[in-house]
């Protein structure tokens, strides 16, 4: 009994899809024959109906797109002869009506901004001239006597604990460094275990 009911429902769905396809084929055919229309917007429909409509439009040799944010409000638009421009598609995706004049104005403004950016790049970077000389500002760090010369050679003032790079390098091997650390540990342990130690 349940299987018979399921079969009946499936047949009913199949009939509805065939009927919907015929209706869409007629609407698309009427749209093709109407020379005044270049695009047609359909009412929101579910996913299956949209896929049937896309198939009908493809068979007819037209272009179709779906628009809308959520599943309940998605609709299909079909176009004759040409695919719409990216700007037109973007307007429909945003839920706006396509206005060619406004789009042309936006395009002109975009081109103008791009030309200005290119001209700015050709001019090169702007020359910056600070109000004060950093050598004077940091002379107490660099050294007062030869502040201007020292800034160029980047020699640090030794009074501030800067060590030359050559003195920073540890020339010992890893084994030598580890042996020295172990020796210091043993020495500390021996001092701690001696009776007179702290």
From TrEMBL:
Gene3D superfamilies: R3H-like domain. Signal peptide: none annotated. It comes from the Eukaryota. It holds the Pfam family R3H. Transmembrane segments: none annotated. InterPro entries: R3H_dom, R3H_dom_sf, R3H_sperm-antigen, SPAG7. One of its GO terms (molecular function) is nucleic acid binding. SMART domains: R3H. Residues 18-81 form the R3H domain. This is Sperm associated antigen 7. The lineage of its organism: Eukaryota, Metazoa, Chordata, Craniata, Vertebrata.
């Amino acid at each position: 009994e349940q299987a018979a009911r399921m079969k009946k429902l499936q047949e009913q769905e199949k009939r509805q899809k065939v009927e919907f396809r015929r209706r869409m084929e007629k609407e698309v055919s009427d749209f093709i024959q109407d020379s005044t229309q270049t695009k047609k917007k359909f009412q929101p429909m579910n996913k299956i109906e949209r896929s049937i409509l896309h198939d009908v439009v493809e068979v007819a040799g037209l272009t179709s797109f779906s628009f809308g944010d959520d599943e309940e409000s998605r609709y299909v638009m079909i176009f004759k002869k040409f695919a719409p421009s990216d700007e037109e598609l973007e307007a429909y995706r945003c839920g706006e009506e396509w206005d060619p004049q406004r789009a042309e104005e936006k395009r002109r403004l975009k081109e103008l901004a791009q030309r200005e950016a290119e001209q700015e790049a050709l001019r090169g970077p702007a020359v910056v001239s600070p109000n004060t000389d950093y050598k004077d500002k940091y002379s107490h760090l660099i050294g007062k006597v030869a502040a201007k010369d020292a800034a160029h050679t980047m020699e640090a003032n030794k009074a501030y604990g800067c060590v030359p790079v050559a003195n920073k390098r540890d020339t010992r091997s890893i084994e030598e460094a580890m042996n020295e650390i172990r020796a210091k540990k043993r020495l500390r342990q021996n001092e701690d275990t001696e009776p007179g130690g702290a």
